Amino acid sequence: MQSTLARFICETKSSTPSTVHVSTKEVIGDESAGDESADDDERQQSSEEEDCSEPDNGSIHTEEVPTSSDILTHLPGCWTWKMWLDKKHSYPWLICVNNKLGCSTCKELPSLGVDATKNIHLSCEWQSVTVSACGKSKEKQLMPLQNKIRRHSKSKAHTQAQKIKLQASKETIESSIATMNKSYFSATKKMFWIAYKIGKTGRPFTDLPVDCDIHVLNGVDIGRTLQSDKSCHNDSDHIASEDVSRNSSEKQTFKGLAIKLASSSFVLNLATMYDCLEELSSLSLDLQERKITLPMAHALIYRAIRVFHSMVDYPGTKYKEVKCVVDKVGTDRKFKDVLIQDNRKCDVVIPYGQLMRSLAANLEKRLVTFRDTENELPKLINSITVLKPSSWPKECPLTYGNEEVKYMCDIFHLDDVIARRGFQEYIDIVRTEGLLEPPEKLMDLIKATKIIAVSTAECERGFSQMNILTSSVRSSLTIKTLSTLMFIKCVGPPPQEFCPSLYVRTWKGSLSDDSKAHARKQTINEEHDYNILRKKLKE
Which has the closest alpha carbon to 272: 361, 358, 365, 342? Predict the structure, then answer.
Protein backbone atom coordinates (compact mmCIF):
# COMPACT_ATOMS: atom_id res chain seq x y z
CA MET A 1 0.00 0.00 0.00
CA GLN A 2 2.85 2.40 0.69
CA SER A 3 4.18 1.74 -2.81
CA THR A 4 0.75 2.56 -4.22
CA LEU A 5 0.63 5.88 -2.39
CA ALA A 6 4.15 6.68 -3.51
CA ARG A 7 3.22 5.94 -7.11
CA PHE A 8 0.12 8.15 -6.75
CA ILE A 9 2.20 11.06 -5.41
CA CYS A 10 4.65 10.77 -8.28
CA GLU A 11 1.85 10.65 -10.86
CA THR A 12 0.16 13.66 -9.25
CA LYS A 13 3.29 15.81 -9.30
CA SER A 14 3.85 15.13 -13.00
CA SER A 15 0.29 16.04 -14.06
CA THR A 16 -0.78 19.27 -15.90
CA PRO A 17 -2.99 21.94 -14.32
CA SER A 18 -6.50 20.66 -15.12
CA THR A 19 -8.39 20.42 -11.82
CA VAL A 20 -11.07 18.00 -10.62
CA HIS A 21 -12.51 17.93 -7.10
CA VAL A 22 -13.23 14.39 -5.89
CA SER A 23 -14.37 13.79 -2.34
CA THR A 24 -13.77 10.69 -0.26
CA LYS A 25 -17.52 10.07 -0.10
CA GLU A 26 -17.74 9.72 -3.91
CA VAL A 27 -15.07 7.00 -3.82
CA ILE A 28 -16.42 5.06 -0.84
CA GLY A 29 -20.06 5.54 -1.86
CA ASP A 30 -22.92 3.89 -0.04
CA GLU A 31 -21.78 1.15 2.33
CA SER A 32 -25.24 -0.40 2.26
CA ALA A 33 -24.98 -1.38 -1.40
CA GLY A 34 -25.21 -5.14 -1.83
CA ASP A 35 -22.34 -7.28 -3.15
CA GLU A 36 -23.75 -9.09 -6.18
CA SER A 37 -21.88 -11.04 -8.80
CA ALA A 38 -21.03 -9.48 -12.16
CA ASP A 39 -22.81 -10.36 -15.33
CA ASP A 40 -21.14 -13.39 -17.04
CA ASP A 41 -21.94 -12.04 -20.51
CA GLU A 42 -19.70 -9.02 -19.91
CA ARG A 43 -16.67 -11.06 -18.87
CA GLN A 44 -15.41 -11.56 -22.39
CA GLN A 45 -12.36 -9.56 -23.23
CA SER A 46 -12.55 -7.32 -26.30
CA SER A 47 -10.22 -8.22 -29.14
CA GLU A 48 -9.54 -4.58 -29.91
CA GLU A 49 -6.39 -3.21 -28.32
CA GLU A 50 -7.24 0.02 -26.57
CA ASP A 51 -5.54 1.95 -23.92
CA CYS A 52 -6.69 1.30 -20.39
CA SER A 53 -7.85 4.89 -19.95
CA GLU A 54 -9.96 7.36 -21.93
CA PRO A 55 -8.32 9.49 -24.68
CA ASP A 56 -6.05 12.03 -23.14
CA ASN A 57 -8.15 15.19 -22.65
CA GLY A 58 -5.54 16.77 -20.46
CA SER A 59 -4.02 15.41 -17.31
CA ILE A 60 -5.95 15.69 -14.06
CA HIS A 61 -4.47 17.53 -11.13
CA THR A 62 -6.03 16.93 -7.74
CA GLU A 63 -6.46 19.43 -5.03
CA GLU A 64 -7.51 16.76 -2.49
CA VAL A 65 -4.68 14.26 -1.99
CA PRO A 66 -5.60 10.99 -0.25
CA THR A 67 -3.99 10.63 3.14
CA SER A 68 -5.33 7.20 4.08
CA SER A 69 -5.08 3.76 2.52
CA ASP A 70 -8.82 3.23 3.16
CA ILE A 71 -9.67 5.24 0.07
CA LEU A 72 -7.67 3.01 -2.26
CA THR A 73 -9.20 -0.13 -0.78
CA HIS A 74 -12.64 0.86 -2.14
CA LEU A 75 -11.40 1.23 -5.73
CA PRO A 76 -11.28 -1.69 -8.15
CA GLY A 77 -8.02 -3.56 -7.73
CA CYS A 78 -6.86 -2.77 -11.25
CA TRP A 79 -7.25 1.03 -10.82
CA THR A 80 -4.98 3.61 -9.32
CA TRP A 81 -6.12 6.91 -7.84
CA LYS A 82 -5.06 8.65 -11.05
CA MET A 83 -7.24 6.32 -13.13
CA TRP A 84 -10.22 6.95 -10.86
CA LEU A 85 -9.86 10.70 -11.31
CA ASP A 86 -9.66 10.29 -15.08
CA LYS A 87 -12.84 8.19 -15.15
CA LYS A 88 -14.67 10.55 -12.79
CA HIS A 89 -13.78 13.46 -15.03
CA SER A 90 -15.13 11.68 -18.13
CA TYR A 91 -18.14 10.05 -16.42
CA PRO A 92 -19.41 12.25 -13.55
CA TRP A 93 -22.19 9.75 -12.74
CA LEU A 94 -19.64 7.02 -11.82
CA ILE A 95 -19.61 5.84 -8.18
CA CYS A 96 -17.56 3.14 -6.42
CA VAL A 97 -18.44 0.98 -3.38
CA ASN A 98 -16.41 -1.99 -2.12
CA ASN A 99 -14.30 -2.35 -5.27
CA LYS A 100 -17.44 -2.28 -7.45
CA LEU A 101 -18.80 0.39 -9.76
CA GLY A 102 -22.28 1.84 -10.18
CA CYS A 103 -24.27 4.71 -11.74
CA SER A 104 -25.58 7.46 -9.47
CA THR A 105 -28.16 8.53 -12.07
CA CYS A 106 -29.69 5.04 -12.49
CA LYS A 107 -29.47 4.38 -8.75
CA GLU A 108 -31.70 7.37 -7.94
CA LEU A 109 -34.46 6.09 -10.24
CA PRO A 110 -36.38 2.91 -9.37
CA SER A 111 -37.52 2.63 -13.00
CA LEU A 112 -38.10 4.68 -16.14
CA GLY A 113 -41.84 4.77 -15.38
CA VAL A 114 -44.03 6.07 -18.20
CA ASP A 115 -40.91 6.86 -20.22
CA ALA A 116 -39.94 3.17 -20.43
CA THR A 117 -40.28 1.55 -23.85
CA LYS A 118 -40.04 -2.01 -25.10
CA ASN A 119 -36.71 -3.73 -24.30
CA ILE A 120 -35.35 -0.60 -22.57
CA HIS A 121 -34.85 -1.04 -18.82
CA LEU A 122 -32.39 0.14 -16.24
CA SER A 123 -29.44 -2.16 -15.53
CA CYS A 124 -29.74 -3.82 -12.13
CA GLU A 125 -25.96 -4.06 -11.81
CA TRP A 126 -25.42 -0.36 -12.30
CA GLN A 127 -28.35 0.47 -10.00
CA SER A 128 -27.10 -1.73 -7.17
CA VAL A 129 -23.41 -0.73 -7.64
CA THR A 130 -22.23 -4.30 -8.35
CA VAL A 131 -20.27 -3.89 -11.59
CA SER A 132 -16.87 -5.51 -11.09
CA ALA A 133 -13.80 -6.23 -13.16
CA CYS A 134 -13.20 -9.69 -14.68
CA GLY A 135 -9.85 -11.27 -15.34
CA LYS A 136 -7.00 -12.97 -13.54
CA SER A 137 -4.50 -10.16 -13.72
CA LYS A 138 -4.87 -6.39 -13.38
CA GLU A 139 -3.92 -5.85 -17.02
CA LYS A 140 -6.71 -8.20 -18.19
CA GLN A 141 -9.27 -6.52 -15.89
CA LEU A 142 -8.76 -3.01 -17.28
CA MET A 143 -10.19 -3.54 -20.76
CA PRO A 144 -13.51 -5.26 -19.84
CA LEU A 145 -14.16 -2.72 -17.12
CA GLN A 146 -13.57 0.13 -19.53
CA ASN A 147 -15.90 -1.45 -22.11
CA LYS A 148 -18.68 -1.81 -19.50
CA ILE A 149 -18.44 1.87 -18.58
CA ARG A 150 -18.49 2.95 -22.20
CA ARG A 151 -21.44 0.73 -23.16
CA HIS A 152 -23.46 1.93 -20.16
CA SER A 153 -22.82 5.62 -20.92
CA LYS A 154 -24.12 5.10 -24.48
CA SER A 155 -27.08 2.89 -23.56
CA LYS A 156 -30.62 4.14 -24.22
CA ALA A 157 -31.72 3.40 -20.65
CA HIS A 158 -28.95 5.54 -19.14
CA THR A 159 -29.61 8.36 -21.62
CA GLN A 160 -33.33 8.31 -20.74
CA ALA A 161 -32.52 8.30 -17.03
CA GLN A 162 -30.35 11.41 -17.46
CA LYS A 163 -33.20 13.19 -19.25
CA ILE A 164 -35.63 12.31 -16.43
CA LYS A 165 -33.17 13.57 -13.81
CA LEU A 166 -32.58 16.81 -15.72
CA GLN A 167 -36.33 17.42 -16.07
CA ALA A 168 -36.83 16.74 -12.35
CA SER A 169 -34.12 19.24 -11.44
CA LYS A 170 -35.73 21.87 -13.66
CA GLU A 171 -39.12 21.34 -12.03
CA THR A 172 -37.52 21.57 -8.61
CA ILE A 173 -35.86 24.85 -9.54
CA GLU A 174 -39.09 26.25 -10.94
CA SER A 175 -40.94 25.20 -7.78
CA SER A 176 -38.36 26.84 -5.54
CA ILE A 177 -38.42 30.01 -7.65
CA ALA A 178 -42.22 30.11 -7.41
CA THR A 179 -41.98 29.80 -3.64
CA MET A 180 -39.35 32.52 -3.43
CA ASN A 181 -41.39 34.84 -5.66
CA LYS A 182 -44.66 34.31 -3.80
CA SER A 183 -44.34 37.61 -1.98
CA TYR A 184 -43.26 39.35 -5.19
CA PHE A 185 -46.29 37.91 -7.00
CA SER A 186 -48.59 39.19 -4.26
CA ALA A 187 -47.09 42.69 -4.44
CA THR A 188 -47.30 42.72 -8.24
CA LYS A 189 -50.96 41.68 -8.05
CA LYS A 190 -51.69 44.68 -5.84
CA MET A 191 -49.95 47.01 -8.32
CA PHE A 192 -52.10 45.62 -11.13
CA TRP A 193 -55.20 46.32 -9.03
CA ILE A 194 -54.13 49.95 -8.63
CA ALA A 195 -53.32 50.28 -12.35
CA TYR A 196 -56.71 48.80 -13.29
CA LYS A 197 -58.49 51.22 -10.93
CA ILE A 198 -56.70 54.18 -12.53
CA GLY A 199 -57.68 53.03 -16.02
CA LYS A 200 -61.26 52.25 -15.02
CA THR A 201 -61.86 55.63 -13.36
CA GLY A 202 -60.19 57.57 -16.18
CA ARG A 203 -57.44 58.97 -13.98
CA PRO A 204 -53.97 59.88 -15.34
CA PHE A 205 -51.06 57.46 -14.90
CA THR A 206 -49.32 60.00 -12.67
CA ASP A 207 -51.81 59.11 -9.90
CA LEU A 208 -50.01 55.80 -9.31
CA PRO A 209 -47.14 57.15 -7.11
CA VAL A 210 -49.65 58.99 -4.92
CA ASP A 211 -51.82 55.87 -4.54
CA CYS A 212 -48.72 53.86 -3.66
CA ASP A 213 -47.79 56.32 -0.91
CA ILE A 214 -51.29 56.04 0.56
CA HIS A 215 -51.11 52.22 0.57
CA VAL A 216 -47.71 52.36 2.28
CA LEU A 217 -49.12 54.68 4.96
CA ASN A 218 -51.95 52.19 5.48
CA GLY A 219 -49.40 49.44 6.08
CA VAL A 220 -49.97 47.55 2.83
CA ASP A 221 -46.96 45.69 1.41
CA ILE A 222 -46.80 46.65 -2.28
CA GLY A 223 -43.14 45.84 -2.86
CA ARG A 224 -40.59 48.19 -4.34
CA THR A 225 -41.13 47.89 -8.10
CA LEU A 226 -43.75 48.90 -10.69
CA GLN A 227 -44.50 52.15 -8.84
CA SER A 228 -43.93 54.71 -11.61
CA ASP A 229 -46.36 56.22 -14.10
CA LYS A 230 -44.58 54.37 -16.93
CA SER A 231 -45.10 51.06 -15.11
CA CYS A 232 -48.80 51.94 -14.77
CA HIS A 233 -48.95 52.48 -18.54
CA ASN A 234 -47.27 49.11 -19.20
CA ASP A 235 -49.59 47.32 -16.75
CA SER A 236 -52.66 48.82 -18.43
CA ASP A 237 -51.41 47.72 -21.85
CA HIS A 238 -50.88 44.18 -20.58
CA ILE A 239 -54.34 44.04 -19.00
CA ALA A 240 -55.93 45.19 -22.26
CA SER A 241 -53.94 42.72 -24.37
CA GLU A 242 -54.61 39.76 -22.03
CA ASP A 243 -58.24 40.49 -21.18
CA VAL A 244 -59.78 37.11 -20.38
CA SER A 245 -63.30 38.57 -20.24
CA ARG A 246 -63.48 38.84 -24.04
CA ASN A 247 -64.74 35.91 -26.07
CA SER A 248 -63.00 34.52 -29.13
CA SER A 249 -64.91 36.67 -31.64
CA GLU A 250 -64.08 39.88 -29.75
CA LYS A 251 -60.43 38.90 -29.50
CA GLN A 252 -60.41 38.17 -33.23
CA THR A 253 -61.93 41.59 -33.89
CA PHE A 254 -59.26 43.36 -31.86
CA LYS A 255 -56.58 41.20 -33.48
CA GLY A 256 -57.77 42.34 -36.91
CA LEU A 257 -57.77 45.93 -35.70
CA ALA A 258 -54.18 45.52 -34.49
CA ILE A 259 -53.17 44.19 -37.92
CA LYS A 260 -54.75 47.22 -39.61
CA LEU A 261 -53.04 49.63 -37.22
CA ALA A 262 -49.68 48.00 -38.01
CA SER A 263 -50.16 48.16 -41.80
CA SER A 264 -47.86 50.35 -43.86
CA SER A 265 -50.74 52.27 -45.46
CA PHE A 266 -52.29 53.20 -42.10
CA VAL A 267 -48.98 54.40 -40.66
CA LEU A 268 -48.27 56.48 -43.79
CA ASN A 269 -51.76 58.03 -43.65
CA LEU A 270 -51.31 58.71 -39.94
CA ALA A 271 -48.00 60.50 -40.58
CA THR A 272 -49.63 62.52 -43.37
CA MET A 273 -52.47 63.66 -41.12
CA TYR A 274 -50.00 64.45 -38.34
CA ASP A 275 -48.01 66.83 -40.57
CA CYS A 276 -51.19 68.53 -41.81
CA LEU A 277 -52.80 68.92 -38.40
CA GLU A 278 -49.57 70.20 -36.89
CA GLU A 279 -49.53 73.14 -39.32
CA LEU A 280 -53.27 73.81 -39.00
CA SER A 281 -53.11 73.63 -35.19
CA SER A 282 -50.30 76.16 -35.10
CA LEU A 283 -52.27 78.49 -37.40
CA SER A 284 -55.42 78.10 -35.27
CA LEU A 285 -53.62 78.93 -32.03
CA ASP A 286 -52.02 82.01 -33.61
CA LEU A 287 -55.39 83.26 -34.86
CA GLN A 288 -56.90 82.86 -31.38
CA GLU A 289 -54.42 85.26 -29.79
CA ARG A 290 -56.07 88.33 -28.27
CA LYS A 291 -53.42 90.64 -29.76
CA ILE A 292 -53.96 89.41 -33.32
CA THR A 293 -54.86 92.07 -35.89
CA LEU A 294 -56.38 91.82 -39.32
CA PRO A 295 -53.09 92.31 -41.24
CA MET A 296 -51.35 89.83 -38.94
CA ALA A 297 -54.07 87.23 -39.55
CA HIS A 298 -53.82 87.83 -43.28
CA ALA A 299 -50.04 87.29 -43.16
CA LEU A 300 -50.38 84.09 -41.08
CA ILE A 301 -52.90 82.52 -43.48
CA TYR A 302 -50.82 83.49 -46.50
CA ARG A 303 -47.74 81.96 -44.86
CA ALA A 304 -49.64 78.71 -44.17
CA ILE A 305 -50.63 78.55 -47.85
CA ARG A 306 -46.99 78.79 -48.87
CA VAL A 307 -46.03 76.12 -46.31
CA PHE A 308 -48.51 73.62 -47.77
CA HIS A 309 -47.31 74.36 -51.30
CA SER A 310 -43.70 73.70 -50.24
CA MET A 311 -44.68 70.44 -48.48
CA VAL A 312 -45.66 68.99 -51.86
CA ASP A 313 -41.95 68.71 -52.75
CA TYR A 314 -40.54 68.67 -49.21
CA PRO A 315 -42.72 66.47 -46.94
CA GLY A 316 -43.02 66.93 -43.21
CA THR A 317 -40.82 65.29 -40.58
CA LYS A 318 -43.24 62.52 -39.57
CA TYR A 319 -43.97 61.48 -43.13
CA LYS A 320 -40.26 61.24 -43.94
CA GLU A 321 -39.63 59.24 -40.75
CA VAL A 322 -42.36 56.71 -41.53
CA LYS A 323 -41.43 56.53 -45.23
CA CYS A 324 -37.87 55.51 -44.33
CA VAL A 325 -39.23 52.66 -42.18
CA VAL A 326 -41.75 51.46 -44.79
CA ASP A 327 -39.06 51.33 -47.48
CA LYS A 328 -37.03 48.86 -45.40
CA VAL A 329 -37.31 45.06 -45.68
CA GLY A 330 -37.68 42.29 -43.06
CA THR A 331 -37.36 42.72 -39.33
CA ASP A 332 -35.79 46.19 -39.73
CA ARG A 333 -39.23 47.46 -40.78
CA LYS A 334 -40.16 48.61 -37.28
CA PHE A 335 -41.73 51.88 -36.20
CA LYS A 336 -41.93 52.58 -32.45
CA ASP A 337 -41.08 48.88 -31.79
CA VAL A 338 -44.02 47.74 -33.96
CA LEU A 339 -43.34 45.58 -37.01
CA ILE A 340 -44.88 47.25 -40.07
CA GLN A 341 -46.48 44.88 -42.60
CA ASP A 342 -48.32 45.29 -45.89
CA ASN A 343 -52.05 44.62 -45.72
CA ARG A 344 -53.96 44.26 -48.98
CA LYS A 345 -57.31 44.91 -47.31
CA CYS A 346 -56.34 48.39 -46.17
CA ASP A 347 -53.57 49.47 -48.52
CA VAL A 348 -55.25 52.71 -49.68
CA VAL A 349 -52.66 55.47 -49.20
CA ILE A 350 -53.66 59.16 -49.19
CA PRO A 351 -51.76 61.03 -51.94
CA TYR A 352 -49.49 63.31 -49.96
CA GLY A 353 -48.93 65.99 -52.60
CA GLN A 354 -52.58 66.09 -53.67
CA LEU A 355 -53.73 66.58 -50.08
CA MET A 356 -51.31 69.47 -49.54
CA ARG A 357 -52.49 71.23 -52.71
CA SER A 358 -56.13 70.80 -51.63
CA LEU A 359 -55.41 72.31 -48.20
CA ALA A 360 -53.64 75.28 -49.80
CA ALA A 361 -56.59 75.83 -52.17
CA ASN A 362 -59.10 75.79 -49.29
CA LEU A 363 -57.04 78.33 -47.33
CA GLU A 364 -56.88 80.58 -50.41
CA LYS A 365 -60.66 80.63 -50.49
CA ARG A 366 -60.69 81.91 -46.90
CA LEU A 367 -58.01 84.50 -47.60
CA VAL A 368 -59.69 87.87 -48.19
CA THR A 369 -57.35 89.02 -50.97
CA PHE A 370 -58.34 86.06 -53.13
CA ARG A 371 -62.03 86.84 -52.99
CA ASP A 372 -64.10 89.19 -55.07
CA THR A 373 -62.25 92.40 -55.88
CA GLU A 374 -65.32 94.47 -54.94
CA ASN A 375 -64.97 93.37 -51.31
CA GLU A 376 -63.95 96.12 -48.91
CA LEU A 377 -61.75 93.91 -46.70
CA PRO A 378 -58.73 93.79 -49.07
CA LYS A 379 -58.73 97.57 -49.23
CA LEU A 380 -59.03 97.83 -45.45
CA ILE A 381 -56.10 95.44 -44.96
CA ASN A 382 -53.93 97.43 -47.34
CA SER A 383 -54.92 100.65 -45.57
CA ILE A 384 -54.02 99.25 -42.15
CA THR A 385 -50.67 98.06 -43.51
CA VAL A 386 -49.83 101.69 -44.40
CA LEU A 387 -49.61 102.51 -40.68
CA LYS A 388 -46.51 100.27 -40.34
CA PRO A 389 -43.18 102.01 -41.06
CA SER A 390 -41.82 98.79 -42.54
CA SER A 391 -44.24 99.16 -45.50
CA TRP A 392 -43.18 102.71 -46.36
CA PRO A 393 -40.99 103.47 -49.36
CA LYS A 394 -37.41 104.65 -48.79
CA GLU A 395 -38.16 108.19 -49.94
CA CYS A 396 -41.48 108.57 -48.12
CA PRO A 397 -43.19 111.97 -48.72
CA LEU A 398 -45.26 113.57 -45.98
CA THR A 399 -48.42 113.16 -48.02
CA TYR A 400 -47.93 109.37 -48.24
CA GLY A 401 -50.99 107.36 -47.14
CA ASN A 402 -53.44 110.29 -46.89
CA GLU A 403 -56.11 108.44 -48.87
CA GLU A 404 -55.77 105.26 -46.79
CA VAL A 405 -55.97 107.20 -43.52
CA LYS A 406 -59.07 109.07 -44.67
CA TYR A 407 -60.67 105.76 -45.78
CA MET A 408 -60.09 104.19 -42.33
CA CYS A 409 -61.38 107.30 -40.53
CA ASP A 410 -64.62 107.10 -42.51
CA ILE A 411 -65.08 103.45 -41.47
CA PHE A 412 -64.34 104.03 -37.78
CA HIS A 413 -66.07 107.47 -37.66
CA LEU A 414 -62.96 109.41 -36.64
CA ASP A 415 -61.78 112.93 -37.51
CA ASP A 416 -59.70 112.41 -40.66
CA VAL A 417 -58.01 115.85 -40.40
CA ILE A 418 -56.49 115.09 -36.99
CA ALA A 419 -55.57 111.57 -38.06
CA ARG A 420 -53.86 112.78 -41.26
CA ARG A 421 -51.87 115.40 -39.35
CA GLY A 422 -50.86 112.78 -36.82
CA PHE A 423 -49.75 110.41 -39.59
CA GLN A 424 -47.68 113.15 -41.26
CA GLU A 425 -46.06 113.88 -37.91
CA TYR A 426 -45.37 110.15 -37.52
CA ILE A 427 -43.61 110.02 -40.90
CA ASP A 428 -41.51 113.07 -40.03
CA ILE A 429 -40.48 111.61 -36.63
CA VAL A 430 -39.47 108.25 -38.11
CA ARG A 431 -37.56 109.84 -40.99
CA THR A 432 -35.70 112.48 -39.00
CA GLU A 433 -35.36 111.07 -35.45
CA GLY A 434 -35.75 107.32 -36.07
CA LEU A 435 -38.43 106.96 -33.39
CA LEU A 436 -41.16 104.32 -33.93
CA GLU A 437 -43.62 105.49 -31.28
CA PRO A 438 -46.75 106.98 -32.92
CA PRO A 439 -47.87 110.49 -31.87
CA GLU A 440 -50.95 111.05 -29.74
CA LYS A 441 -53.04 112.32 -32.67
CA LEU A 442 -52.72 108.95 -34.45
CA MET A 443 -53.38 106.68 -31.44
CA ASP A 444 -57.19 106.67 -31.81
CA LEU A 445 -56.92 105.31 -35.36
CA ILE A 446 -54.32 102.70 -34.40
CA LYS A 447 -56.46 101.47 -31.46
CA ALA A 448 -59.50 101.28 -33.74
CA THR A 449 -57.68 99.00 -36.19
CA LYS A 450 -56.77 96.62 -33.34
CA ILE A 451 -60.33 96.01 -32.15
CA ILE A 452 -61.47 94.32 -35.38
CA ALA A 453 -62.45 90.74 -34.52
CA VAL A 454 -60.36 88.34 -36.60
CA SER A 455 -62.01 85.12 -35.40
CA THR A 456 -64.80 83.90 -33.13
CA ALA A 457 -62.31 82.78 -30.45
CA GLU A 458 -63.36 85.51 -28.02
CA CYS A 459 -67.04 84.59 -28.38
CA GLU A 460 -66.19 80.95 -27.77
CA ARG A 461 -64.30 81.92 -24.63
CA GLY A 462 -67.41 83.73 -23.42
CA PHE A 463 -69.66 80.71 -24.06
CA SER A 464 -67.15 78.50 -22.29
CA GLN A 465 -67.18 80.71 -19.20
CA MET A 466 -70.98 80.82 -19.29
CA ASN A 467 -71.12 77.00 -19.25
CA ILE A 468 -68.77 76.96 -16.28
CA LEU A 469 -70.85 79.48 -14.34
CA THR A 470 -74.24 77.86 -15.04
CA SER A 471 -73.45 74.53 -13.43
CA SER A 472 -75.95 72.06 -11.98
CA VAL A 473 -75.71 73.72 -8.53
CA ARG A 474 -76.19 77.27 -9.94
CA SER A 475 -78.94 76.65 -12.48
CA SER A 476 -81.28 79.35 -11.09
CA LEU A 477 -79.12 82.34 -12.09
CA THR A 478 -80.95 85.15 -13.85
CA ILE A 479 -79.69 86.62 -17.11
CA LYS A 480 -78.63 89.84 -15.37
CA THR A 481 -76.69 87.98 -12.67
CA LEU A 482 -75.07 85.72 -15.26
CA SER A 483 -74.09 88.75 -17.34
CA THR A 484 -72.57 90.38 -14.26
CA LEU A 485 -70.54 87.30 -13.38
CA MET A 486 -69.36 86.87 -16.99
CA PHE A 487 -68.27 90.52 -17.14
CA ILE A 488 -66.19 90.15 -13.97
CA LYS A 489 -64.77 86.81 -15.12
CA CYS A 490 -63.88 87.76 -18.68
CA VAL A 491 -63.13 91.49 -18.53
CA GLY A 492 -62.25 92.21 -14.91
CA PRO A 493 -58.60 92.56 -13.83
CA PRO A 494 -56.86 90.00 -11.57
CA PRO A 495 -57.72 90.26 -7.82
CA GLN A 496 -54.31 91.70 -6.95
CA GLU A 497 -54.87 94.53 -9.45
CA PHE A 498 -58.49 95.24 -8.53
CA CYS A 499 -59.14 98.64 -6.89
CA PRO A 500 -62.35 98.52 -4.80
CA SER A 501 -62.15 102.18 -3.73
CA LEU A 502 -63.75 103.44 -6.94
CA TYR A 503 -66.74 101.14 -6.55
CA VAL A 504 -67.13 101.81 -2.81
CA ARG A 505 -67.54 105.54 -3.45
CA THR A 506 -70.36 104.96 -5.95
CA TRP A 507 -71.95 102.37 -3.69
CA LYS A 508 -72.32 104.70 -0.67
CA GLY A 509 -75.27 106.58 -2.16
CA SER A 510 -77.47 103.46 -2.22
CA LEU A 511 -76.08 101.82 0.90
CA SER A 512 -78.69 103.33 3.28
CA ASP A 513 -81.56 102.28 1.03
CA ASP A 514 -80.39 98.68 0.64
CA SER A 515 -79.14 98.07 4.18
CA LYS A 516 -82.41 96.51 5.31
CA ALA A 517 -82.98 94.55 2.18
CA HIS A 518 -79.47 93.11 2.23
CA ALA A 519 -79.16 92.55 5.96
CA ARG A 520 -77.64 89.25 6.92
CA LYS A 521 -80.15 86.63 7.86
CA GLN A 522 -79.98 85.39 11.41
CA THR A 523 -79.58 81.65 11.58
CA ILE A 524 -82.02 79.87 13.86
CA ASN A 525 -80.37 77.44 16.21
CA GLU A 526 -82.37 74.25 16.23
CA GLU A 527 -79.87 72.32 18.27
CA HIS A 528 -82.03 72.71 21.42
CA ASP A 529 -84.40 70.01 20.18
CA TYR A 530 -81.58 67.52 19.93
CA ASN A 531 -80.17 68.64 23.29
CA ILE A 532 -83.45 67.77 24.98
CA LEU A 533 -83.42 64.38 23.31
CA ARG A 534 -79.86 63.72 24.40
CA LYS A 535 -80.68 64.61 27.99
CA LYS A 536 -83.60 62.20 27.94
CA LEU A 537 -81.39 59.44 26.60
CA LYS A 538 -78.82 60.02 29.33
CA GLU A 539 -81.50 59.64 31.99
Answer: 358
